[in-house]
Write a structure and sequence with these properties.
The protein is an alpha/beta fold. The chain is built from 33 helices and 23 strands. The chain is globular, with a radius of gyration of 27 Å. Bound molecules: ligand 26Q. It catalyses: [(1->4)-alpha-D-glucosyl](n) + phosphate = [(1->4)-alpha-D-glucosyl](n-1) + alpha-D-glucose 1-phosphate.
Length: 795
């Protein structure tokens, strides 16, 4: 390793020379990649040795998604090498930022849930806590999005290359996972045992990725499983070619749906591969008796997707370790804890019994018995039929995974205060009453090392110049910025950084997507997956409203705004795709209108992903967090934008509520109905969007413009949108909230009129954002759920 720029240059040049090649960018990338990996390897080995020598309790985070983003630059940041490497390369005539761009990000997640898992990994290692990830090594990550005639198209992606992958194959650690087969009772000397006869075996091969904590001290492991053909005996009744094909499919690609798609056998195979392989791995040669699993291992399941870990752990304990049911259940329910990420009923996982019965016959029997015993205990407590039905794991031939996850865990959490309260009071009311101490809140967080230090080094430097460097380790110290919120010279510096980040974004967009943006306009940013409840439709309808005002009121000439959109729709989510098409269509109308384009500009960034987010977020001035109240469990993009000084226009939903609480409502643009009102309307089914349209000429006109195809020149299926708003009774209350949304936007324009005041509000947002670092979240999980101790320092 090196400690100075000069040393780095020597090291680097030696390597390049070793390869007898010119300083091409690719070669530089390869060299830097290999050097970084060697530095990491050293500390990785040391961390692992420490875990072996002093086996403290370890946490394993089971998740079907880990949306880690690019790793090279982030590893350099966490190793504290970034600046030295950057300066050294500069002097060699190479740009580190250009080298970084050669890395394809592994898109092993859809959105919030997968990115949360990645932030958590970073915080665990950075807090020197023994916590690791288990996931799947999808060959294809989330699809690449392109627009063709304004429509989303999906191209498969491949992030795995011939060499220099982020992860390394551990072929000696492969395990075998059993699918199908028949459950047999075997009577032996030790009693009755159950085995699975004639299963179809699939080999799970692990690939390990180092998770580099801050200062490079602790390096934990993210272990990803890849499905491969097993060499074990194969049932004679089945076709081997078909088997090879089906096996390869298991980890071939990530499911691109983040709420709707369900009940697919392939998805079930993925979930079981993750759970079975990871648990076998953990219990391979434990340094402790299985009775002491809960003292040595904590398993957190990221939503219900890995909930099969519950019956699988039971299976291993009972069938492989010959434990009795009660003891196995006691161990399991003291080891596993569960995080819920949604209250949308369509996103609650359910599996047909017959599907699990045929693919995982032993697992099915165990789930059935868990359900039976639970119901028995409830009956003994004299529960009513209605309560019994709500609490049953199996109901009408389907398995409700959320109920299984709650019953089989010792702790259950929601991801923001509001969300946890809704879970406790409504969605999981009966479960909460049954297990009063199980439910708790852990408000999400984001790692400031990626979303501030890495994505916005200029702002980070300004912060450090202003309040010193302690905030890097203790992000809550960002609140020391409060004393500078009215300091003119600091505010000017802040404005200069924001301008620079806007210009960098413009440069990036112009280069990659040939988009030209006015840097003086207000950057209003709406980035997230496309979903009805996230209400991108309300944003674009509001833009239509502004268009009409500009066209028909010659006194209305608002300050220029650029509305950025970014996000993907699940390929089968028709409505979301129609909204994408609508935004693109209105974008070309607005952007090509000589009058309107002086005031409004729409930019739809193609293929929004972690890398794009790192460009967009530091440049944002307005953050759109406009979900229908009660629907967004937490949101995490909201926190990233706040930390970079964007002002939030948002509803009282998810973690927005806590953001407003921290920063004060006067430093945000809050609008719309509250969760209780929405839920009241839903209960009474009393909302009628027709009444709104009839009583409101402006909205009525917009609906007419859409329905007749006039506004969008017949280019979109406007009937469909209008239908959603009228026939389907506007399930996300777009028309109900749109006026209050428009008023909040007017307030934004007024505030922006006073640049110093705007900067002051921005700084107050940054200052109040420290609590949303995932370091805080992880410390709370550790204190309340996992009970981990810090890894001793290895420096
Ligand atoms: C389920 C069944 C079949 C196929 C796919 C799925 C599936 C996949 C992904 C269901 C849900 C997801 C992802 C959900 C998600 O990202 N939820 C978000 O989690 C964030 C982190 O807690 C929250 O901040 C967001 O509010 C929440 O929407």
């Amino acid at each position: 390793m090196f400690s100075s720029k000069e040393e780095f240059k020597k090291f680097f040049m030696n390597r390049i020379a070793d390869k007898r090649s010119q300083k091409s960018l690719e070669m530089a990338f390869e060299t830097l990649w290999e050097m970084t990996h060697e530095w990491i390897q050293e500390n990785w080995n040391r961390t692992n040795q420490l875990y072996e020598k002093e086996p403290e309790k370890q946490l394993y985070y089971f998740s079907i998604e880990f949306l880690i983003g690019r790793v090279l630059g982030q590893n350099l940041v966490n190793l504290n090498f970034y600046d030295v490497v950057k300066e050294g390369l500069d002097e060699l005539g190479l740009k580190l930022s250009e080298i970084e761009e050669l890395e394809d990000e592994p898109g092993l997640g859809n959105g919030g849930l997968g990115r949360l898992a990645a932030c958590f990994m970073d915080s665990l290692a950075s807090l020197a806590l023994p916590g690791h990830g288990y996931g799947l090594r999808y060959k294809g990550g989330l699809f690449t999005q392109h627009f063709v005639n304004g429509n989303q198209t999906e191209q498969p992606t491949k992030w795995i290359k011939e060499k220099n992958n982020a992860d390394a194959r551990q072929k000696d650690l492969a395990v075998e996972v059993a699918y199908y087969g028949d459950v047999q009772l075997v009577v032996g000397t030790a009693g009755v045992k159950r085995t699975i006869e004639n299963p179809v075996w699939v080999k799970a091969v692990p690939y390990d990725l180092p998770i580099v904590g801050a200062n490079g001290g602790t390096i934990n492991t993210l272990r990803l499983w890849q499905a491969e053909v097993s060499e074990r005996p194969f049932p004679s009744t089945k076709d081997h070619t078909v088997y090879e094909h089906e096996t390869a499919k298991i980890t071939d690609r990530l499911y691109p749906d983040d709420s709707l798609e369900s009940g697919k056998i392939l998805r079930l195979k993925q979930q079981y591969l993750l759970c079975s392989a990871s648990l076998q791995d953990l219990l391979r040669n434990p340094s402790f008796p299985v009775e002491e699993i809960p003292e040595n291992i904590a398993i957190q399941i990221n939503d219900t997707h890995p909930a099969l870990a519950i019956p699988e752990l039971m299976r291993i304990l009972i069938d492989d370790h010959s434990l009795g049911w009660e003891q196995a259940w006691d161990i399991t329910t003291r080891t596993i804890s569960y995080t819920n990420h949604t209250i949308l009923t369509e996103a609650m996982e359910k599996w047909d019994c017959h599907l699990i019965q045929s693919l995982l016959p032993r697992i099915y029997l165990i789930i059935e018995e868990i359900d039976l015993r639970f119901k028995e205990s409830l009956q003994n407590q004299g529960k009513t039929v209605d309560v019994l039905r709500k609490l049953s794991i199996i109901e009408e031939g389907v398995i409700k995974m959320a109920v299984l996850a709650v019953v089989g865990s010792y702790k259950v959490n929601g991801v923001a205060k509001l969300h946890t309260n809704i879970l406790k009071k409504r969605e999981m009311k009966e479960l909460n009453e049954q297990f009063p101490n199980k439910f708790h809140n852990k408000t999400n967080g984001i790692t400031h090392r990626r979303w501030l230090i890495k994505a916005n080094p200029e702002l980070s430097e300004l912060i450090t110049e202003t309040i010193g460097a302690r905030w890097v380790k203790e992000p809550e110290r960002l609140d020391e910025l409060h004393s500078f919120a009215q300091n003119p010279s600091f505010l000017q510096d802040f404005q200069a950084v924001k301008k620079l980040k806007k210009e960098q974004l413009i440069y990036h967009l112009q280069r990659d997507q040939n988009i030209v943006v006015d840097s003086a306009s207000i950057f209003d940013i709406h980035i997230k997956r496309f979903h009805g409840y996230k209400r991108q439709l309300m944003n674009i309808l509001h833009i239509q409203m502004l268009y009409n005002r500009i066209k028909h009121d010659s006194t209305y000439r608002p300050y220029p705004r650029t509305f950025f959109f970014g996000g993907k729709a699940a390929p089968t989510y028709h409505f979301a795709k129609q909204v994408i098409k609508m935004i693109n269509t209105i974008a070309s109308k607005v952007n090509n209108d000589p009058l309107v384009r002086e005031h409004l500009h729409i930019v739809f960034v193609e293929n929004y992903n972690v890398t794009q987010a790192e460009y967009l977020i530091p440049a944002a001035e307005v953050s759109e967090q406009i979900s229908t109240a009660s629907k967004e469990a937490s949101g995490t993009g909201n926190m990233k934008l706040m930390m970079n000084g964007a002002l939030t226009i948002g509803t009282f939903d998810g973690a927005n509520v806590e953001m407003f609480e921290q920063v004060g409502e006067e430093n945000a643009f809050v609008f719309g109905m509250r969760a209780e009102e929405i839920m009241q309307y839903e209960k009474e089914k009393s909302y009628n969007p027709k009444e709104i349209i009839e009583g409101d000429p402006e909205i009525a006109k917009m609906m007419r413009q859409l329905a007749t195809g006039k506004f969008t020149d017949g280019k979109i299926n406007a009937d469909f949108i209008v239908e959603q708003l009228l026939e389907d009774k506007d399930p996300y209350f777009v028309l109900k909230d749109i006026h209050s949304y428009a008023k909040a936007h007017e307030k934004i324009l007024k505030a922006y009129d006073n640049p110093m005041k705007w900067a002051e509000m921005s700084v107050k947002n940054m200052a109040a954002s420290g609590i949303f670092s995932s370091d805080r979240t992880i410390q709370q999980y550790s204190d309340d759920v996992w009970h981990l101790s810090k890894v001793p320092s290895i420096h």
